Queue: 4 jobs
Job 1
Amino acid sequence: MKIEAVELRVVRLPLVTPFRTSQHSQDERIALLVCVHTSEGEGWADCPVSPGPFHEPEFLSGSRAVMAEYLVPMLMAAPGVTAARVQAVLAPVKGHQMAKAALETAVLDAELRAKQMSFAQYLGAVRDRVPVGVSVGIPGSLAELISQVEDYLEQGYKRIKLKIEPGWDIEPVRAVRQRFGPDLALQADANTAYSPASAHRLRALDEFGLLLLEQPLAADDLLGHADLAQLLTTPVCLDESITSPRVAAAALRLGACSVVNIKPARVGGYLAARAIHDLCAAHGVPVWCGGMLETGVGRAANLALAALENFTLPGDISATARYFTEDITAPFTLDDGHIAVPSGPGTGTEILPGVLDRLTTHREILR
Ligand code: MG
């Protein structure tokens, strides 16, 4: 396959409600989309970076620059590029996993569309719909939290995840557990907000029967997580720490986690995501698919990944309406707490050209 041009688009999607974690707050999604124009057709991908480097080290204008100056010229100079070769071609560039993942995914989409094969089929999916959970940001009050959770449960979500931070942890978890009872599938995500010295505070969460506690400590603190996992009865799950199959293998060997949240963009794409899935399966460690406020393009590919066998916990994929009033693809909707896995060629979702053009704030074509 010959790559003839790569198109980058910045689109602006207003969020239904502002989303706040321990690290960051946002009230709109400014997304970066990549389209590869190849000898065999087009392929699209979402590069779910944020405008600033506050959640991930990569950020939108940085990703645009590294693609335009380095990654795209390297890809266009390489003969016979396939998705499986993209990482090797781009290996001279250090880091920039999310930018590389977006290019790999766009090439994979083009390749699979040309072969009339879906992401789900290619990755080895075993389900045609997946149960989904919802991630609840940090609201202004406990009453607001309870009403949001109630609303999501009425919509049919199968699992609730609460964002926590020091000072907003034990009380909200207790309040939700008391209000909705012991059978609610409930988990908490700290997004790296704690230090090892706060282990006693995290231990207090043990009494609430959480499915897991996600990424309490710094992303590079695998040993800290291994020590913490010994102190807690709540299973420790890693998210920000898991940046590659190699890091995942180290985390498992160290006992730093007993559950893994796989974010395809962060680990370098869907091929690396599948490798982490296989590794965790071999260790008997369940995985689930996290979300990075993807547009419908990324959401579609994430649904295919989440349909693999060892994705035994509901992911953060959510229906489109959880985040956006309008998306650049047809919306994904909930049906009894599940979302259908797209079965068409490639990601199986089509971009709505009129909406895309209306929401685009920047467009460049690299040749
Ligand atoms: Mg997380």
Job 2
Amino acid sequence: MKLSEGLTVTELKRFKQEGEKIACLTAYDATFASTLDTAGVDVLLVGDSLAMVVQGQSTTLPVTLEDMVYHTACVNRGRKRALLIADLPFMTCWSPETALQSAAGLVQQGGAEMVKLEGGRHRLEAVRLLVQEGIPVCGHLGLLPQSIHRLGGYKVQGTDPHDAERLLEEACLLEEAGVDLLVLECIPATLARAITMEISIPTIGIGAGPDCDGQVLVLYDMLGVTAGKHPRFVKNFLAGTEDIGGAVAAYVAEVKSGQFPSRQHSY
Ligand code: KIV
């Protein structure tokens, strides 16, 4: 029996304890997965941003579980070392049982080693059930793209004290429920720092400042190929490098050294 040579959740937790930053990027196919893995990316996230950057949709809402399973399986074939996380897309977590059934597809057919779900307090039962069945879970707080119509736009979250307090509390509740990693999207750097210090699981920031335990960006954003206006947390790593492998290696190096994100990429 060949034992896996890949990174595990336990090792990512050790990274936090030892102060090593976690470099994460989204991936949607085998060729990019292999390039990212070779360049030293620790975690590959098959994000439901797939809807926007691959399928050309205007939000993440239309992507289906079937689409996610297909792309997760593609990414799985291209990687060796990186941990593989897949997003549970819109309306696949409306009950704990639905979340479990959807997560099972991502794990069994897609090869995901962890699933990510958006939301706090109202997801605790789903998290407990998944963890009880042996499926590691990544939480996601702050800007929740699946709730975009309720939020009324892609805006920074947790800017008022009441909302900041709620996010800190929900981070603790998610950890208690069994979440192993936590994505923090578009929140003030000071709040992300407070959450990161309060919980013992690693936080992965996107637009959440330099003090998270790791960073994630949408692959096409960091390669500078996404059309239109970019949020301030995006940096084009292809500019100034010779090829995509070099751009990804530069991203990994800047995340690991703490050079990225800087104040200019934070709120
Ligand atoms: O779908 C996605 O790409 C994500 C990241 C932005 C964290 O959830």
Job 3
Amino acid sequence: MKIFDLGPSPTEKKEENIMDKNYYVTTPIYYPSGKFHIGTAYVTTLADMLKRLKKMQGYDCLMLTGVDEHGQKIEDKAKDENMSPQEYVDVQADAAKKLWKTMKIDYDIFMRTTDEYHCKAVQEIFERFLKQGDIYKGEYEGWYCKPCESYFTETQLVDGKCPDCGREVTKMKEEAYFFNMKKYADRLLEYYNTHPDFIKPEYRKTEMINNFIKPGLEDLCVTRTSFDWGIKVKSDPKHVIYVWLDALTNYITALGYLSDDDSKFKKYWPADVHLVGKDIARFHLIYWPIFLMALDLPLPKTIFVHNWFVMKDGKMSKSKGNVIYPDQLIERYGLDATKYFLIRELPTSQDGLFSPEEFVERYNFDLCNDLSNLLNRTISMVNKYFDGKVPEYKGLQNEVDEDLEKASKDAITNFENEINNFEFANSLKAIWSYISRTNKYIDETSPWVLAKDEESKEKLKSCIYHLVANLREIAILIRPLMEDTSDNMLRQLGMSNNVTWDSLKEYKDIKNTKVIEKGEPIFMRLNAEEEVEAIKDMMKK
Ligand code: ME8
């Protein structure tokens, strides 16, 4: 029985539009320069959540992540470690994969830019740009930021320092190839203006226009001769291709673009969403679309720019001793609590704060008090009043039931709306306000009072049914982010974990269900003081 209409399911949509059944989500490919902290783990967690959600909704999904292995930074790092660059990146790529395994990240492709098929495609793309006249040879003189591997003009510097990372820059001159960005500036602006979903959130578009496009796009230097570790220009091998041209194209080479088998490219391109951090917005919102225009390829449907996790004393850095790594949190508090915190605490409008106090508070209030206790109280009442057997749906007994069912419907709509608006922290807020509403329902209906009077038996059945139905719905809603918790909840409720997004339509259909005899807390209350100290210790290590 369908109780509310979620619109056509993707399976129904398939017939209408064959393109709609695919979903391609990407993370940036990481610099393999050491352990990933919680900030860097954020975007992969988010991509994984979106992929799992779309998968539950019936889409054919593909998630791409990987490592960005070329460039001077990597060459230098390898030297520091007494390794060849290839040895260094091999070790780092394994470490990245290990973390994603710990975090149960369900990626489909792990890109390594040192892979031969990628290098070959990048070389071909470069030659095509040369042939088309988009790339020309010249001489470059400018202010170079080594960590960012970027040149800047005098006017782009901020207080004489790199505008991206704030570090020292040096004056350098070299023969180089340039990409004629100016040629595409008007087309890019036109594209921004005619595609409102292209850049999210909207304010990032304004930043690009005001800071880079309006003042006049500079042509981009796309080769280097000052180092070796990169993809060589086929027709002029003393030049190495600029790491960003190499890295950005991974989104299409990973799908087999320019390879013998480009079936994935045909199926999944253009990407539904590229997720990128604010520091790399310019590369994705300006250079990448221009490269794609030059290749005559469609642009990704959306590029979502996220903010950063910062600490009370500013950016995370080893020298400040304020770095926190996801595996440390996972080991002590579990995967789902860690992922919940990451998505819940990073708003779309500003940076998010990581503090040990906040982490412990979210754990104790949201996960333990609100969610875990709701499950526990419900299971114990089903056992106490009905020997563990969940009563069947009894219809609405009163206004409170009516209000609760409306809340159930709203929770799904609100969650989906927030996701569609790229408000991921708010999407969790929507679920948790539903959890609070359900907790309040227990107080409003006072089942322990209903249980005393035989005449209110039907009301008691309805009350317990609603609690179980809400918990089942909550388990489905949190599933894209917290699958283990969702599994655990469904198991305790005596239900199958074989659920899809469409299962949300079965709110009134729960039948023949028996909950477990004794509920098991899914999150145990933490001793706040002790745990705040424990997290502070992790940061010092
Ligand atoms: O930028 N909070 O790689 P990367 C949130 N190789 N996100 C953070 C963060 C923080 N504190 N610190 C870093 C690169 N990030 C390039 C990408 S894509 C074609 C090439 C994010 O390893 C950062 O914003 O430096 C970026 O999105 C991601 O971590 C990887 O950063």
Job 4
Amino acid sequence: MGAPLHIAILTGGGDCPGLNAVIRAVTLALARECGARVTGIERGFHGLVARRSRPLAPADVAGILAEGGTILGTHNRCDPFRWQGADHSAAAVAYLRELGVDALVAIGGDGTMQIAERFEALGVPVVGVPKTIDNDLPATDRSFGFDSAVAVVAEALDRLATTARSHGRVMILETMGRHAGWIALEGGLAGGADVILIPELPFSLQALAERAQAVELADGGAGSLLVCVSEGVRIDGDLVVRERVDDAADPVRLGGVGHVLRERLQPLVGCEVRSTLLGHMQRGGTPTAFDRVLATRYGVHAAELVAAGRFGRMVALQGAQVTSIPLADIAGRSRPVPPDHELLRAARGTGVLLG
Ligand code: F6P
């Protein structure tokens, strides 16, 4: 009998609720499945460059199922193939060899999967696990973290609704999601938004102003309006950019469209308009029960792929089934809200203005 497998695991890109649940599931399932030893690489791919790692025994992952963030830390800029002006990939592979690692489990979004695929090409066997609150990874119907983000949006809208009604105001809530409208759409539906604006659908300021004007006349002037806007919505064709992170693969960080919308809308209506930017509240904190279970299923499936020697694949949820697809199938693709999606019909069917 050969030595037990030795597997490295890392979390890359922005954090999201459920990462620890995956780390826990992979560690426990690998120990049960094939007695494998697990090493955690710290701060995503940066740990391979900075040579930072630590052993992960089943006892190390006890009690982390419900914990937000990632116990391993993460990094949303470091790509060892081009980090601070140099290619560190050979040194990263050498570090894995020194550790005696047989394979790598990489938990992350599209950027992480692309880097993972390049390591696979250098001879490091890899299994990917998809994560993003944005829910925009192709070939998987749900990424863990999304449900938790939606729950935060719904709660924020619930809270905004009562203050909006008290003052007869228009309340704008801006969500994350990058160029996909999933969080705003599902969160907006869950929180009873009257208007949901997503990047995939064109929007008219005039139509929004008319809806807001109708509010002023409703309930003797005490009507209110809840607007849920995704950060990737364009105003007059332009994205609203919060900042640029120059050494990142995707340097543009969106944010602020809600405030711009408020400035544009206020002069067109009589009632007061306020805006709230939810920001990283959507990424922090404990995962929902749904995300804990999904993350656990993903982690166990990743461990099964490792034990079976099926590398170069990413775990995915298709319908109700956890399965896997070739890593190469997702490179450079994203998954926007399709214009005929059933959620859009549900929104329109309940009178929500979508653009
Ligand atoms: O991709 C996840 C996400 O939270 C996006 O929704 C958001 O635009 C971005 O990351 C924020 O990135 P950062 O944490 O670097 O500000």
